[in-house]
Write a structure and sequence with these properties.
The chain is α+β, with helices and mostly antiparallel strands. It has six helices and 14 strands.
Length: about 280
């Protein structure tokens, strides 16, 4: 099966705006659709609290023909039009859908950050992990989130194999960003966040990109929009992941980034995996 995950940074804008950035986003959507993925996971959709509008649904039908979709939006008391996730899967599938709450602090459980699909033989779950924020103002809450999320995935893994993806908002190792020395206390590269990700992997999960590519450097999934030359100079971070239960690691075929051309911010990531679990 082939899966693609992408922090789209506003599906809302991609479907309704004619700005230059929205046009670039739709070009990336075209690239994704060419890959003919079984499932597409989108983070930071920024849809309204009550979900896609009529216009959104019309555009989703237009762009993603042959796909069904499930969404989760930020709800009060969290901010409206914030965060959010969506799964699109081919119409031939009919997974059971869950919208878990993990006992996260602050409003994190209301921000539409996790959706889980049960495909019978395996779970497929996506996450948009909370950012520690400017000045690390949300770092303490983020640490609690990381613990709760790791426990949640571990619980799923006890039932059946898990495939997990999303924007984890952490560069795990120094080789996962271009300038580690300059970012020691930057959100996404603190010791606390990196430790949280290590803890997650130790609960029985494999970073599929590293499994395939080893310690290769210079391959990133995010380039800061605030720095106009970040992508040109490849001053990036790898903060988007496909993880699998350790017992699925020998079934990984590919794990790579897709080309988002000149659009800065996140780029889509793809996983190909042989899921004939009975073999």
């Amino acid at each position: 099966m082939r899966f693609i995950s992408w922090n789209i940074d506003s599906l809302n804008a991609a479907l309704t705006s004619d700005s230059n950035r929205a046009v670039l986003t739709r070009t990336v959507i075209d690239t994704i659709l060419e890959m003919d993925a079984d499932v597409i996971a989108l983070q930071e959709t920024k849809l309204p609290a009550n979900g896609p509008s009529k216009k959104h649904m019309e555009r989703l039908e237009e762009y993603f023909k042959g796909y069904s979709y499930k969404w989760r939006s930020s709800q009060e008391p969290a901010r409206k039009g914030y965060a959010g996730t969506m799964f699109l899967y081919k119409d031939k599938y009919s997974p059971e859908v869950f919208y878990p709450e993990i006992g996260a602090p602050d409003t994190m459980d209301y921000e539409g950050r996790i959706i889980t699909l049960d495909f019978g033989e395996f779970y497929l779950t996506q996450v948009y992990t909370p950012n520690a924020g400017d000045g690390l103002k949300r770092l303490n809450e983020r640490q609690v989130w990381d613990e709760k999320y790791a426990e949640y995935l571990q619980g799923l893994d006890k039932e059946k194999p898990v495939i997990a993806t999303g924007d984890y908002n952490v560069a795990h190792k120094e080789i996962d960003l271009a300038h580690p020395q300059n970012n020691r206390r930057s959100a996404g590269f603190t010791d606390e966040e990196r430790g949280g990700f290590t803890n997650l992997l130790k609960k029985g999960f494999t970073d599929t990109f590293r499994y395939i590519h080893g310690d290769v450097t210079g391959m990133y999934s995010w380039w800061a929009q605030r720095v106009k030359t970040s992508k040109i100079n490849n001053s990036g971070w790898r903060i988007d992941y496909w993880l699998v239960s350790d017992r699925l690691s020998n079934k990984i075929v590919k794990s790579e980034m897709l080309d988002s051309d000149e659009r800065q911010d996140h780029t889509p990531i793809m996983l190909e995996i042989d899921l004939h679990l009975g073999k």
